[in-house]
Amino acid sequence: MLKVICAMSGGIDSTVAAALLKSGRFLPAGRQVNVLGVFIRFWSENKTENLKAEKKAKFVAKKLGIPFFIFDFKKEFKKKVVNYFIQEYKAGRTPNPCVVCNKEIKFGLFLKKALAMKIDFIATGHYVRLEKGKLMMAKDKEKDQSYFLWQLSQKQLKRCLFPLGGYTKTEVKKMAEDFNLSVSSFRESQEVCFASTSAADFLKKNIKQISGNIINSKGEILGRHKGLSLYTIGQRKGIELPGGPYWVVKKDIKKNILLVTKNEKDLLQKELAFYLANWISGKNPNFPLKVKVKTRYRSQLADAVIKKGNKVVFKKAQRAITSGQSVVFYLPVQAGRGKELLGGGVIK
Fold it and tell me: Per-residue DSSP letters for 101-162?
């Protein structure tokens, strides 16, 4: 009998993932499975909300009739994810904490602990499909989370299950009702899970904000910014200059200067360089390679070519390419199967 432990956050997605595993509908017919649930404690400013989520996960596990565990990774999460988040902003980059959390915590420490318990597979509520070692975009393209999983390895993936990859969010909500789980009582995940309010408020509390000049491409001083960590490339709101709109084009950390423009076309770039490359297959592909590319989670897939030296050239210029964010590569595959996640890197 297979032993599977499902990460349960108290949200609808991970709850339905556990319910699907328990029902036997996810695994091939005839396979017997022993499902366990686990709530992973992360460091957060909002201890009250975390406690509510933990209680919710425990309640649902009891309703599903599965054993329930708690893994406390607060210390490791603070070190690996939160500190990284702060240091990247201090360096003038815009980090992607979900990518680091997936690699180090959810598919790192969680998997390691599960294997020590003689568990066969870990499962999560991620919207992504896994087919013979290949990570594929989910059926629901709006909810697809493959973008955040580009740092995973074959060693990790061979122990993973993603029950929701073949469903839409609407179908997941319907299944929650079919499993007699109250949809309205579930919370949705937030932008920065460890911040009690907004990312900006969190940064204000953890990084000393030093005001500096806002300039245009001519070097003319237009006003004062409130601290460079509060701005990101392509940002329009919050600049607070008369005669706008203005967009953030560049941050000069050494000079503490924010460069803005009134011409949105100044945000367009035809190329980028990246580092910390990871290829899902475990092998470097042959370059040059035509791919589909995302430079932000919500950006559209763009046609591009990856060249030697970790360089990407786009067919059409892309808007607001930002250092510190992930650039993620996809390969078109057979019709009806979606797109394969090839790998990714961090934008220089």
Answer: HIIIIIIIIHHHHHHHTT-SEEE---SEEEETTEEEE-S-TTT--GGGGTT--HHHHTTEE-
Catalytic (active site) residue 160: no
How far the first Cα of the chain sits from its last, in Å, is 47
Instruction: Indicate which residue of 6, 98, 160, 193 is catalytic.
Output: 193
Are the C-beta atoms of residues 347 and 153 closer than 8 Å to each other? no
Catalytic residue among 6, 98, 101, 160: 101
d(Cα 271, Cα 147) in Å, to the nearest integer? 20
- The 10 Å CB-count burial string (b at 16+, else e) for 227-257 is bbbbbbbbbeeebeeeeeebbbbebeeeeeb
In this predicted structure, what is the pLDDT of residue 219?
Answer: 96
Q: Which domains does the chain have, with CATH numbers?
A: 2-185 (3.40.50.620), 208-262 (2.30.30.280), 268-347 (2.40.30.10)
DSSP state of 198: -
Q: How far apart are CA 203 and CA 92, in angstroms?
A: 12
Q: Can you tell me the distance from the alpha carbon of 3 to that of 115, in angstroms, rounded to the nearest whole number?
A: 10
C-alpha Rg value of the chain to the nearest Å: 22
Place of tokens 């046609």: 303
Q: How far is CA 244 from the centre of its chain?
A: 32
**Residue stretches of the chain with pLDDT short of 50:** 335-336
pLDDT score of 181: 86
Active site residue 193: yes
